[in-house]
Structure formats: structure tokens, C-alpha cells
Structure prediction request, 126 residues.
Amino acid sequence: MGPPSSGGLTIGEALNILEGFELGAVLREEALHDYLEASKLSFADRNAFLGDADDVYVPLAELLSQAFTDERRELIGPTAAEPPVAPSDPCPHDDDPEVCEASAGPSASSAGSTTHLAVADASGNS
Prediction:
């Protein structure tokens, strides 16, 4: 599902980061470490750049690009990154960086946000 939902992008970025690891060839603990670190990085980017595409530019292609995820993968080391993990700028990997910079998405310091609520009654009607 596309923006403003963030699940697809976040999972896609994490999987693209993990693409560079041989997860089946390492101990389970190391594979889980790599998975958790890739998830930290993709959630940091999600928090910085995702929003309602009707209101802000959401750099989906940039966040999922091979160049960007290769760069993010390099940040994964043998020990866990200290939180909070900083987002990275996906715009240098865009074919038209002026578009990305001119309409950058929300950041942690942006005012306002959206909330998703799912409501059901006792009969399960939503």
C-alpha cells in the first residue's frame, strides 16, 4: 500500500538493505542483528520522509533505490546502532534533486501529523 501508509516502503527499504547480506550463511543471531539494524534504518527514513503524498513530496523511488539502500547497508556494523538512528538524505540519488529538495517531506520537527484509527463495534462491524 502506498503513502500515506508506510508499511510497504519501510519493509521494501529494509529488504533492499538486507539484499547485501548472506543471511542464510550466518548464525541466526547475526541474521537477526542485520534484520533489526536494517529495520532501524528504514524506520528512521520513514519517519523523516513519509507523509500524505497529496501534501508533500514522498521520495519513494529514491528511498528504494539501489544506490540509497547500498549506502544505508554500509552503516550496519557488528554492534547495534545507538538510538535514535538518524535518517539519511535520499535526494542525492534522485535524477532530479531539485524536485526532491524543493518539496521535501515532513521531518521530526514538522508541525502536525496524521493518525490512523480502526474502529469496530461488538459485532465486528467497522
